[in-house]
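To illustrate the input format used throughout this study, we show a single complete record. The first block contains the structure-token representation of the backbone; no residue identities are included at this stage. The design step must infer an amino acid for every position from geometry alone.
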């Protein structure tokens, strides 16, 4: 990462070419921070996010696109949780429970609950994991969170924690290990203009501005994980979109050739965005991250993945499930795969483990303990 200041450069101000070149370098470095005035460029450049405002509009557009295509939903029905390794359990508890306002799950597991979704965290001794893009969270009150921030600044002073931007109804926060979180106040939905003048209640509820409208940021009217944005290598978004369409039968929205937004539940999306600055270090930092989803046509999905050699039993979780055979998969109602491939060439284009459960899994649409803060 290039330095932010020009004090380290000894240049002759009379040499306009040299000065102009250095100025260009400075501007490029500032732009790479993805914020208006980040105080710590080293942590700010750890992301390839499009930004909170752009991502919000894209996932709302994707939700509109989903409903326009069909009302008969296939593919992934629900994204329940994301699993991340953290560097310190006590520090993670302070960040997620005390600062962000997640609720501690009533089980013995290290689960952090937000609405009907969860972060499953682990302190394993391995390096902390970092999503290459960002995670979009809808929270009950940014006002309350802002009032808590000052009390924790010293606690996180030696970490990558940072408030990158704070813009009214949304805020961008970097977690102690470099994950970028775009936080949206759920009250944004109450400000939407209701556009339907239909006398029929259900028409009003589903039209823009209604309680069930596609343009709402809340997840089924609640806080939760609105999206996960994943930066991917140039030239891979089209292959990723095709993989989700054909293997998982998901609804896919592609506003540009270098973007793919995958519907993974009502008002929930995975966003894959190509980024030419994505480094091997960034990709390595995300290895091992997994999401838990519930999918329709479970046996058909298993067969399609198995035929391409993509079924994978995670050795870290064999105490929970295995899926080397259909009999094992059927018994646990769970399959896993981690490689997303180009269906034309068979080449691996991205790694993201999907803990994939059948709709008859006992935890489908579970309601974990959650108290808004």
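Output of the design step:
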């Amino acid at each position: 990462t290039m330095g932010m200041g020009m004090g380290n450069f000894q240049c002759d101000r009379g040499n306009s070419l040299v000065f102009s070149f250095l100025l260009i370098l400075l501007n490029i470095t500032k732009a790479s921070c993805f914020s208006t005035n980040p105080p710590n460029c080293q942590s700010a450049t750890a992301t390839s996010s499009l930004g909170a405002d752009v991502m919000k509009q894209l996932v709302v557009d994707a939700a509109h696109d989903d409903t326009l295509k069909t009302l008969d939903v296939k593919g992934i029905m629900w994204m329940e949780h994301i699993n991340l390794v953290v560097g310190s359990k006590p520090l993670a508890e302070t960040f997620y429970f005390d600062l962000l306002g997640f609720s501690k799950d009533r089980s013995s597991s290290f689960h952090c609950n937000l609405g009907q979704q969860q972060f499953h965290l682990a302190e394993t001794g391995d390096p902390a994991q970092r999503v290459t893009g960002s995670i979009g969270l809808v929270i009950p009150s940014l006002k309350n969170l802002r009032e808590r921030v000052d009390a924790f600044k010293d606690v996180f002073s030696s970490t990558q924690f940072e408030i990158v931007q704070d813009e009214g109804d949304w805020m961008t926060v970097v977690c102690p290990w470099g994950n970028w979180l775009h936080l949206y106040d759920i009250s944004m939905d109450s400000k939407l203009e209701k556009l339907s003048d239909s006398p029929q209640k259900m028409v009003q509820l589903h039209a823009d501005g209604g309680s069930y409208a596609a343009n709402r940021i809340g997840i089924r009217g609640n806080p939760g994980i609105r999206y996960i944005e994943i930066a991917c290598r140039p030239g891979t978004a089209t292959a990723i979109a095709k993989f989700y369409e054909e293997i998982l039968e998901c609804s896919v929205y592609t506003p540009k050739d270098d973007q793919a937004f995958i519907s993974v539940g009502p008002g929930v999306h995975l966003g894959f965005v190509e980024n030419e600055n994505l480094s091997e270090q960034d990709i390595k930092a995300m290895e091992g991250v997994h999401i838990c989803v519930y999918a329709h046509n479970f046996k058909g999905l298993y067969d399609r993945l198995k035929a391409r050699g993509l079924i994978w039993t995670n050795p870290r979780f064999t105490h929970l499930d295995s899926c080397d055979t259909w009999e094992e998969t059927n018994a646990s109602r769970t399959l896993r795969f981690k490689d997303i491939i180009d269906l034309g060439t068979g080449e691996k284009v991205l790694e993201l483990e999907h803990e994939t459960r059948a709709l008859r899994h006992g935890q489908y649409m579970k309601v974990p303990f959650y108290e808004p803060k």
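Structural context for interpreting the output: The domain at 52-286 is CATH 3.10.180.10 (2,3-Dihydroxybiphenyl 1,2-Dioxygenase; domain 1). The CA atoms of residues 86 and 128 lie 5 Å apart.
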